[in-house]
Amino acid sequence: MSAHPNLSTTTDLELFIHQFHQAVETESPSNDKAALHRSARLFSALGEGLMGEPAQIDVIDGFPHLVWRFGNGPRRVVLIGHHDTVWPLGTIDDMPFTISGGIIRGPGTDDMKGGVLIAMHALKKVKEQLGTLDGVTLLVTADEELGSLTSRDLIEHESAHARASLVFESGGPNGEVKVARKGVAIYHLNVTGRAAHAGVEPEKGINATVEVASQVVKIAGLHKPEAGTSVVPSFMHSGTTTNTVPANATLSIDSRATSAREQQRVDQALRRLRPVIPGAQLHLDGGINRPPWERKVSAHLFARARKVAQELGHDELKPIMVGGGSDGNFTAALGTPTLDGLGTVGGGSHAVDEHARIASILPRVDLTAGLVVDLLTSDQ
Q1: Among 91, 126, 128, 176, which residue carries the largest CB count within 10 Å?
Q2: In angstroms, rounded to a whole number, what is the distance separating the alpha carbons of residues 169 and 5?
Q3: Using one digit for the tens of pLDDT, what is the confidence trace for 189-228?
Q4: What class, spelled out in words, does domain 7-182+293-377 have in CATH?
């Protein structure tokens, strides 16, 4: 293994925090393309300052994805992050960027603007040591929070033959890295009945509320926690007024599974649903969004990362499996060794207490830089 890049310094941290402040204050909700373009321009400039090159900005259906592709040869290491957040414009006024007690707070601090900066700062260190980043891709997408609908092809194209994919979502609560994730499937069941006056002639109606209630019971029965599968009927809406037989109802369903087999079982069962009430109609939208990421795909790469952490003098690096999906699900499904959770360590993702711990930043930069150097210089 080649010697690790020089350890990060207080000066590096000061620059990181300054850029973190800029990134958080440049709000970038997933559904606001103008805001996303402002964020993309900022991250391209930050990346140019750190790595020496601006991003190529690939705009797909209005979403600006940033790609740094160093060298023309095969991809050896792909680093993946996203610059969109769940927070609407104006959130920064109620959740300003603040630093107190070693904690940085603000929208996107945990998910995942700090993670993007960790990747950039790590690649700066790799370039300083090796003199090149040939074989490396850094991909920062703009629609992860919406399911990566326009960026998935980019992610898969860059990662398909890589030695490793590194994903910069936040780490576990104690600094763990993520070595497996459940697959994610999201569905929307639409029920069509027929309206009628609830007091005068209810028998002429087809009650969509009763129909959707019957379907909820069936759907909840697909839940199988002993197999690592969750099927949760979540948001539901039906009816218009108290004195009207409901003509329409909608139901959202969130399903997570640890195996492709279980994911397919649930998908097929949902597509076989049939109405209970004569005349009612069912229409199912949605489907599998992210395939399961099974732990075996990450085993060897995690062992490398743990060894790098040990050589850096870090606490023992530990693995964790989580239920939420990420772009790592896509790369792992390709068979590409994948490691996630290399971003900041904090908490409150998608919540008002979103935060990152300052003490986690430099160790994550150094770990990432060391791992990338190892992957670029080792024959194994």
Answers
A1: 126
A2: 23
A3: 999 999 999 999 999 999 999 999 999 999 999 999 999 9
A4: alpha beta
